[in-house]
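Batch manifest line 395
LIGAND: magnesium ion
JOB: complex structure
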Amino acid sequence: MKKITVLGATGSIGVNTLDVLARQQANEWQVYALTAFGQVAKLAEQCLAHRPAYAWVGSAEKAQELTQLLRSQGSKTEVLHSPADLCRLCDAPEVDAVMAAIVGAAGLPPSLAAAQAGKRLLLANKEALVVGGDLFMQAVRDNGAQLLPIDSEHSAIFQSLPDDPARWQTDVEKIILTASGGPFRQRNPKTLGQVTPEEAVAHPNWVMGRKISVDSATMMNKALEVIEAHYLFGFAPEQIEVIIHPQSVIHSMVQYRDTSVVAQLGTPDMRVPIALGLSWPGRTSSGAAPLDFKALQAMSFEEADALRFPGLQLAWAALRGEAGSTCVLNAANEVAVDAFLKRQLPFDQIYRVNAATLGGLQPGRISHIEDLLALDQEARAFALGQIAAAVTQAA
Ligand code: NAD
Ligand code: MG
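JOB STATUS: finished
ARTIFACT:
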């Protein structure tokens, strides 16, 4: 039996992963560890259903709470809580695969630990790659890890590219990421300042965590995905394009030198890329409903409006900037989205904070992951300063 650690088990991707695992043959996968930051009751339920050897939570108090809950139900799952333990649950010799589904840069250390230990790494946590960049990919290559993208667009591109990575540079003209356009695709851009967190997290096609839902509304999610695609597949920034496709049926496309376009299609259900990550190079059941072409009325495409979605362009600005720029952009965005969700920053100011931080902070020399972690902290402090200034100005 293969063993898997699911990071961020209580989140949207984590829950979908456990659903797909439950659909596999009983002797195929064993859950080695489940982790969550808080959400103790939900994690306890998952532990009782999947019987992992270990569970991890973000503090000693939560660990005590979880242990009590588990013991009262007769569960033997051992509960851990230190940052070092989180990494150990990813690089332990018994572990075959890790699902990286923590949200934000907080997921970088355990994802990197899995890469450094040469595991199969199912990467949903795009921020880890946006922060880690080339150093992260170097760790994957140096240690023979198998990096399988879980982000639906990157899974689609992975499936549409030639099997032989040596052909990616010779045969491909460009890759085209599709974007739904989120909840504000048709909203008057002048009213974006009044958007509430409730409106921003209500995505038309996908049910996701709060942070990625806000990112989809600003299209910063697509900006992070452009950066993610660059690091994952090695294409130059000019070879990566974005097109709005509101139905989310085509999950992304590859255009070849001869103009042929190869795409991957399906219903919008994250269990499809998750199932592929588990079964690759084979295929297994995902639980998703198949696409019904007869019911599909139309597929449409439109250009992303730069006035409505100014954040999208920051991807190319960061990729053309110095090493570490994508880390700076990600940190600013995490801080700005958090402030927006706490109703401290208007929706349309997220872009301003991101652009000001990207333009205002010099990354310095980046040789190690530790340099990036320090830069991440510096960029967060800078972005917080920008938010404070924006709030003072508005008052
Ligand atoms: P979510 O908010 O629903 O879940 C996040 C999980 O991470 C939770 O289990 C939470 O407890 C845990 N977590 C949060 N902060 C943590 C910390 N500091 N330390 C340890 N654990 C922490 O998020 P989600 O929607 O499942 O997204 C997870 C990741 O997958 C994100 O990077 C997102 O961009 C990516 N992703 C999600 C989707 C989707 O459909 N939800 C699609 C593509 C990519
Ligand atoms: Mg995506």
